[in-house]
Amino acid sequence: MPDLIIVGTDGSPAANAAAAWAVDDAARRGCPVRFVSVIDRWAYSAVKFPTGAGDPLTQQAERALAEAEAIARKRRPDVEVSLEIAEGLPARILREKADEASAVVVGGTGVGGFAGAVLGSVASHVAGHAPGPVVVVRPGWEKAAEREEIVLGVDGSPECEPAMAYAFGEARLRGARIRAVYAWRLPILPLVPEIGYDPEEAREAEHRILSSALEPWRNRYPDVEVTEEAVLAHPVDALTAAAAGAALLVVGSHGRGALGSLVLGSVSRAVLHHAYCPVAVVRPRPSSG
């Protein structure tokens, strides 16, 4: 997989926030950034408009790319930057380009080429379908980050492994600590009251699930500080509360357990809407074999 970060940009404040986040991450990784602006002529019923360098949508895309490049040059002049204009549906184009990159970064809202692309359209679609990490960034993310901490949603499933790999890798690059959050719920046993249930025993069992899931990653990244939180709560509530003031929230796209049976559209979608910090949704990549 190429070590390249792709950033969808349309000149909106959210896209520019994503550009700033991406070049910072690229500087840590020592990798290039490619800014991509997508012209969606159908969104404007503009298929009959002139095409080429002089048409308004192309000019708009060029302005968006120039803004993103200016942010990168000012913020991280040593990061290699390339620019690309593509035509089509923004969500589809960015989803397809995920195969070319180690991560895709998008803003949480958009205008222009991503017209009407509030969270729930472009960002949500890319996060829900693109392989690998998709990072969604809101304007003001730097001010919201009060501590150098990465919150990691853990559900104990194999599908969570890519998210754990990304979170630990980011933590090492940043010199940040990880707060691993595992949300669990009490079982509902109204129809079988004769079955005994010890809440404290259940709490200890859930802690063991979290510790077991983290153990191989602690061994692989002994330099990363990790705190564990197995909390009795809905996963969305637990994750958004833990992520308040954090530098990054990392979740998987689906799984089992507390976060599981909740694909993007539930937990992941909800934290994308409610978390103020950047959110990385990490889907497994297709196996090469």
TrEMBL record:
Residues 5-138, 148-283 form the UspA domain. SUPFAM superfamilies: Adenine nucleotide alpha hydrolases-like (SSF52402). Pfam families: Usp. Belongs to the universal stress protein A family. PANTHER family: STRESS RESPONSE PROTEIN NHAX (PTHR46268), UNIVERSAL STRESS PROTEIN UP12 (PTHR46268:SF6). This is UspA domain protein. It comes from Thermobispora bispora (strain ATCC 19993 / DSM 43833 / CBS 139.67 / JCM 10125 / KCTC 9307 / NBRC 14880 / R51).
